[in-house]
Amino acid sequence: MWIKKVCNLALCLSLLLTGCQKKPKATMDSLKVDFQEGDLPSLHPHALVIYLRGLSIAKSLFECLTRINAEGKAELAGAKSVEISPDRLLYTFTLRLNKWSDGTPVTAHQYENAWKEALSPTSDCARADLLYMIKNAQEAKKGEVPLDTVGVKALDAQTLQVELAYPSPYLLELLARPICAPLVDPKKKEPSEFNGPFLVDTWKREDLLRLKPNPHFWNSSQVLLKQIDIFMIQDTLSTFALFEKEEINWIGVPLCPLSTEQISHLRKNNTLRSHPVDRAFWVFLNTQHPSLASPLIRQALSLAVDRAAITKHILVGGEPLSKPLPMSLLEGTTSFDAGIHLEEAQRRFEQGLNALGYTKATLPPITITYSQQANRKQLATYLQEVWSKTFGIDVRLQAQEWNVLRSNLGKGLFEISGCFEAAFYKDPVELLERFVSLNPCNFSQWTFPTYGESVALAKKERDPKTRLALLGKAELILTEQVPFIPISTDVLLFGHHPYLKGYVFDYIGAIDFSYASFSP
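Below the sequence we write its predicted structure tokens.
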């Protein structure tokens, strides 16, 4: 049976074994969570932006101009007011009186300098593209214009002006992301000052990250937690056992994904919680690999996948995807039949072999790389078995720690690997634009001329019908070219201490504990 289940006995034994260990009980003013994916490589906001757990912790360490509230809307935070020009191209923000954790004031110049550092051609910021709606931002990143022409300028210590290249209804949402955080010294690899609700008290790499309230934060009176402890336990059974004993207060996405068995356990006890999210699981195919260079080969791999079985037994909670983007993010575009089509898959595979000049015997082996995250090994094993059996080819598996794998995805140092992807705000262009050019977010190393043209036009198009048609054209190209295999939508599944209140999810699924508390 290709679905490999973790034995319930193993789960029970783990609970018994960890139950023998003496650990301090959680207090009602201290939050304890776990990063099952391991420690973060850096706490620099430009590095945090590519990890969901990084996006979550950034909300506690940094105060941006805006913050996402409990209704999922952007509200002013580091800024106390904003004036918007009639053409919606010019935004003028007046900052609140806020201070860094060392007591020095936060200034508009620190916002400007941090953003321009992300846009510097020499910066290694992985998601500088998020700022491309700002005038001259993309051109500056490419080195085509000087950084001082970018449309962000501190008019004085408390006033920041932002000029856009085109109107965007999502700017205020973007400004809540760590890519838009201010920095005292943007070039410093690890920040030592924080302007958010919390500061770093202790950081024992690969063991514990402890946060304490920032006494200089402008809204410190509303910060109720006295401490946040973040452990780096990568064994899911151990983490779940600690959660059962209330020694960890949160289990599940976005901090420590649940296994299929743990989801069933929480559901049985009526303690499983969920939150909707517009994200999708994609299996990326490195189109620069000789075995994956033909779209016919990539189509064949997609046609052989049983998405319904995967969403039932492995990626539990979501629904099979019948188009590259979730319907909730891009509705009204062409779907494909998400069922299994083995005969057609085999036919296209043979055509692809002929186009590449290979036979099954001479086709270079392909390797599926997976991380330690819950259910990833199960999925990789399933894909290996299905593709090996259907096509008679050599498919291998390779395990990698998530931080390493995520870095390798951005560098194109993989052949096949899957992960969840989501837009930073509710606009399909933010996801589609990643495949316009070769960049660290284009894991598949794939481009297509007419695709880029459609996305570029859609980005600036104001007529909804014309924009939808352009987006649909771009999505159809993804369906035909298959730089990645769409597998499923997602729902965030988790459990937490029954008294935990006041946490907030944002659009991408990151969680904000800044104003959380425990109350019966």
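The first helix runs from residue 8 to 19.
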